[in-house]
Amino acid sequence: MAKLIKERVLTPERPVEERVKSFVEVNLGYTLELAQKEAARCLQCPPNYAPCIKGCPVHINVPAFIAKIKDGDIKEALRILWNDNTLPAITGRVCPQEDQCEGVCVVGKVGTAVNIGKLERFVADYTREKGIDKELLEEELKKIEPKPGKVAIVGSGPAGLTAAGELAKMGYKITIFEALHLPGGVLIYGIPEFRLPKEILKVELEKLEKLGVEIRKDHLVGRTVTLEELLEEYDAVFIGTGAGTPKLLNIPGILLDRIYSANEFLTRVNLMKAYLFPEYDEPIAVGKRTIVIGAGNTAMDAARSALRLGSEVTIAYRRGREDMTARIEEIHHAEEEGVKFEFFLNPVEFIGDENHKVKAVKFEKMKPLEERDSRGKRKIVGTGEYVTLEADTVIIAIGLEPNRIISESTGLKVNPNGTLVVDENLMTSIPGVFAGGDAIRGEATVILAMGDGKKAAKAIDEYIKTGE
Questions:
Q1: Cα angle vertex 226, ends 223, 229, to 5°?
Q2: Which residues of the chain have pLDDT under 70?
Q3: The pLDDT value given to residue 405
Q4: Residue pair 121/89 in contact by the 8 Å Cβ criterion
Q5: How far apart, in whole angstroms, are the C-alpha atoms of residue 466 and residue 248?
Q6: What is the bridge-based pairing of β-strands 345-352 and 358-372?
Q7: Which of 12, 23, 75, 364 is disulfide-compatible with 193, CB 3.0–4.6 A?
Q8: Residue 78 CA to chain centroid, in angstroms?
Q9: C-alpha dihedral (300, 303, 304, 309), degrees to nearest 10
Q10: How far, in Å, CA of 146 to CA of 165, rounded?
């Protein structure tokens, strides 16, 4: 038996002093040699046991694709990935593997877990650069047998794209209806270029189009076209409209200028490429000092984007470091790049100048208790002490709620938090209408949305076949 290598092979990263000056991708990924070294660390747990497979929301056969990397058969590694995941170049970059497949990796019990996410990314990137993915796609296209049936997908985020890809591989005719002028959902408007290059997403979308998926942009279902009209033309509908409505703070000064929701800020920067103004039309005003309120991945993305736009950035969070929900890697990158962190500060007022622009934020200092809430986080209480931090830009990143345009314009049942009510097969209260992703979960991860898209595709297939 080969000796267990306890520590993972790290992927190279762009130097800090270089990356903070542009939006180029930070992580450079594995070379073939490095990927094979890392793949050799995998213990090859049998599929019926492998915790990594069970820990993956789309149940990728992790040991199998890693074994192919070790053997140098990268095309076969991609084939194995595609069996369960149509977007490996994306999930390999943005999926929280440390909480899922890597979090339960057996190697991680004695050392660092196998770097499953970066190996997944390597397979997608290597095959794309070598043209191997196109060869494999042509092979897969020949296997598809067309089926009678048409499905409408509402929203082109991770849930919608996954459902579309799975159904297209089954042989159905698929049309995606996207409200924005570019498809991708949160993948294009929410995740910065330095984490997910738009060129990667473009390639994935082109793959779907080759599978026969039609993407109709600038179509807001519930306004441009109704759900009833879709049901007249299509055999089933999948709703993957995501969670794009920002939660805001109901405190004095919220209407001051240069206070953004993270959703608006990132949409301008990512989708509308404000960071390239005036090459692109959309400007964005970022001052000398920016405060980002929140501590999730969205907060990290907003903070690191503002930093690249030339601002000094501070993240203010009402709890402690251990309660931050952002990925460890994102927090590490933010700190490396110069983002400052202030903990146990709860915003109570935005202070403006004579021009109605924000100039400072007043915070109450918070105190943690030993008691924990339902999420396992320590409860906090106010101390009655206050501190004021100067800021000429504020970005609020405290979460998102589901988009409600469809539920408000139809008879779909919704939960009190705005998520759509679905049964065990992800069917909504209207027969033939299914839903998944943030539309049914609230703000969650890309891979969980993809898992819903995959599950819904199977349910839609069964519904079209049987009417149930």
A1: 150
A2: 1-2, 274-278, 280-282, 407-409
A3: 74
A4: yes
A5: 44
A6: antiparallel
A7: 23
A8: 21
A9: 160
A10: 14
Q: Is 28 exposed, middle or buried (0-12, 13-18, 19+ CB in 10 A)?
A: exposed
- For residue 96, give Cα distances in angstroms to 11, 24, 223, 345, 449: 16, 21, 35, 27, 13
Six token digits for residue 274: 């404000």
Q: Quick one: pLDDT at residue 407?
A: 67
- Paired tokens of 171: 């042989």
Per-residue exposure over 56-80, b if at least 16 CB sit within 10 Å of its own CB, e if not: bbbbbbbbbbbbbbbeeebbbbbbb
Q: What angle (nearest 5°) sits at the alpha carbon of residue 58, between those of residues 116 and 417?
A: 115
Burial class of residue 7, CB neighbours in 10 A (0-12, 13-18, 19+)? exposed
Q: How far apart are alpha carbons 277 and 240 in whole angstroms? A: 31
Q: Which of 249, 153, 143, 255 is nearest to 205 (CA)?
A: 153
Long-range CB contact pairs, 16-25, < 8 A, 24+ = 16/336, 16/337, 19/194, 19/337, 20/307, 20/308, 20/337, 20/338, 21/308, 22/308, 23/192, 23/193, 23/194, 23/275, 23/305, 23/308, 24/193, 24/194, 25/193, 25/194, 25/195, 25/197
Cβ-count burial of 145 within 10 angstroms (0-12 exposed, 13-18 middle, 19+ buried)?
exposed
Going by C-beta distance under 8 Å and a sequence separation of 6 or more, which residues neighbour residue 411? 429, 430
Q: What is the pLDDT of residue 1?
A: 46
pLDDT (0 to 100) of residue 280: 65
- φ, ψ at 169 (rounded to 5°): -65, -25
